[in-house]
UniProtKB/TrEMBL annotation:
<protein>
    <submittedName>
        <fullName>DEAD/DEAH box helicase</fullName>
    </submittedName>
</protein>
<dbReference type="Pfam" id="PF00176">
    <property type="entry name" value="SNF2-rel_dom"/>
</dbReference>
<keyword id="KW-0067">ATP-binding</keyword>
<dbReference type="InterPro" id="IPR049730">
    <property type="entry name" value="SNF2/RAD54-like_C"/>
</dbReference>
<dbReference type="InterPro" id="IPR027417">
    <property type="entry name" value="P-loop_NTPase"/>
</dbReference>
<feature type="compositionally biased region" description="Basic and acidic residues">
    <location>
        <begin position="7"/>
        <end position="23"/>
    </location>
</feature>
<dbReference type="InterPro" id="IPR001650">
    <property type="entry name" value="Helicase_C-like"/>
</dbReference>
<dbReference type="GO" id="GO:0004386">
    <property type="term" value="F:helicase activity"/>
</dbReference>
<keyword id="KW-0547">Nucleotide-binding</keyword>
<dbReference type="InterPro" id="IPR038718">
    <property type="entry name" value="SNF2-like_sf"/>
</dbReference>
<keyword id="KW-0378">Hydrolase</keyword>
<dbReference type="InterPro" id="IPR000330">
    <property type="entry name" value="SNF2_N"/>
</dbReference>
<dbReference type="InterPro" id="IPR014001">
    <property type="entry name" value="Helicase_ATP-bd"/>
</dbReference>
<feature type="domain" description="Helicase C-terminal">
    <location>
        <begin position="545"/>
        <end position="707"/>
    </location>
</feature>
<keyword id="KW-0347">Helicase</keyword>
<feature type="domain" description="Helicase ATP-binding">
    <location>
        <begin position="304"/>
        <end position="463"/>
    </location>
</feature>
<feature type="region of interest" description="Disordered">
    <location>
        <begin position="1"/>
        <end position="23"/>
    </location>
</feature>
Amino acid sequence: MDTTGLRGEEIRPTPGEARRARDEAGRLLGTARMLLAEHERARRDVMDVLEGVRAEQARAELASVPVARLKDVTGGRLRIGALEKAGFTDVRQVLEASAYELQLLPGIGAPTAAQLHSAARQLEQAARESTGIRIDVGRRDARTTALLVALYRLVDAGPDLPRAVEAARELDRWVVPLLLEARPAFGRLRLLLTGGRRRRRAYAALAELTGELERVRLLETSLLLAQATTDLLRPPPSEFEAWTDFELRSPEYHTLLAELAGNGDDRPAAHGLLPGDLVAEVLAQRLDDAHRRVSLRGYQEFGARFALARRRVILGDEMGLGKSIEAIAALAHLRSEGDTHFLVVCPTSVLINWLREIESRSALKPFCLHGSGRAAARDAWEREGGVAVTTLDSLYRLEASPGVRVGMLVVDEAHFVKNPRTKRSQAVAEWCRRVERVLFLTGTPMENRVEEFRTLVSYLRPELAENLEIGYAAAGASAFRKAVAPVYLRRNQQDVLAELPELVETAEWVEFSGPDLDAYQAAVRARNFMAMRSAAYAVPKTSAKLKRLLEIVQEAEQNGLKVIVFSYFRDVLACVEEALGGRAHGPVSGSLPAERRQEVVDGFSAVQGHAVLLGQIQAGGVGLNLQAASVVLLCEPQLKPGVEAQAVARAHRMGQVRGVQVHRLLAADSVDQRLLRILGGKARLFDAYARRSDLAESAPNAALDVSEQSLAAQIIEEEQLRLAEGRPR
């Protein structure tokens, strides 16, 4: 409230006006404090149950810790021979034994028993702090159920709850001091008894209070607080409702759980092993959530801040960690900073998914600049602002008006533009030159060669790319990390998603049937490498691989589990589809339009219980979220280790609530066996290079680049020689 008139004289609001402002502020403060109290009560309920769950899981973990570890805790001073002779094998047994029971053992007195318990409790505390909370839908025990029921209140309040709580805390900070300072202005008698200086301070405080109330009204803060409080006051769900909601919204539950359990973004794993000075720079970056509609994990918050602080970067998080959410968080922050127009470029296969994510995860409006309506969508985007989403292959046709300033360019699956000679790469490079902030997203930006990674960096920071020499491939971990740290951040699933269910991989070896072998030998003689790879399915009626595949699908059906079947070959998927009697969804293939592809995946995910989805591995392994499945079948080995890793990660990712079983169907004495042997070394290099953001010390650059042609030629020669000699492998 301005307290000066046109001529500079002081305007004194009437006590009635002042009291109305006081009453409004009081009501607002009451609503804010009620929300804070309910929020604290809900958090406390979760923490009470969480402590019990952590203690239980820690004790279970101690059952696998040998008693010898007790010596480590005490620097080797404890003698545990008597324990081992008495049959104590793990720390949990020592922790659960009473002091009296321990003292019954020869050589163990009261001091030693106390030392043993103290050492065991130290290990228990360490286990509590390090053990991630895993919620398994297959084991619905009472403690975990109670935890989900407690978490439900906070999750069901929605993504606006953190914003409402922060607004309530802010109100609690400024309302009371302003009310106290403005108190003399609320009554005529009090004003008469107040000195001039105190009166002026009262009017100034009243003006500030009125201004803040006006701001709160414009932001509809009162409605936000009331809605959040109502959500928290809803009755608790039934156990069935809590588990059902968890299966539908498990990422939200795990995000909240990680926050409450203290697994924030201060852990080195969340920082992708960046050097300390860069970590400090990133953590100092503010991240506004006003236009965001999703809560972030600690590592996701760090990733969004990294993109903002460093401006032009590659976010190389492993598949399944939510790179798109990190990008949307960065866009939402920039919207709060005043930017209005953004551009996302992605493969056609994930275009629909991006449109959905932007709409559901933020207050930003998405526009699809693809297909017949792209011109009208572009005009609307330029006029209204928001996020334009287009494909890598159509970017070259996009020309924004000179007056449109793009606040950030996001390029998804950026490894698709590693060849600078392609039209799509040239279009991306041109847009990178136009836009100040650029974010590349890719799970495998360094899959093949340092040269290709350098190409990606050259779009963002040419001066850094010039210094990124091929020699870094042999320079070791520290040199490579130092070179790429300013532009590259990568985190792995096992480092930041402690709650991921178990991933069990099984090699399903089969022997060729007679017709299978005939088809395989004919393919070898014809030097037809692709026919060799698919020969195990050439005669479906006698196919040993197909028989095993059907057995696994049948077992999954009996257990109500969803299955994804991946193959490189369309005819193999057609064979599987026919064998399943047309019961499968798909196949998801490169020729399937993006809209139809998403519809197929949605239909598969929506089925209650068992279902089968067929997918070409090069199409289904990119961009799509398939966490509804818990069984993955790979019909044949792939030529690149990253292709299989991508496909598996589509199911074993954030949001998965069941353990994932991966079955690789392999034919003995065949191309499969050759491929596994040859690619084994390449997979290890890929793991060291792409997964660790690091290079093996002795790995030459060329070792990572096994071309399909040379690989095929090598295997054909070896198989022709083996078959000519009539020997098994």
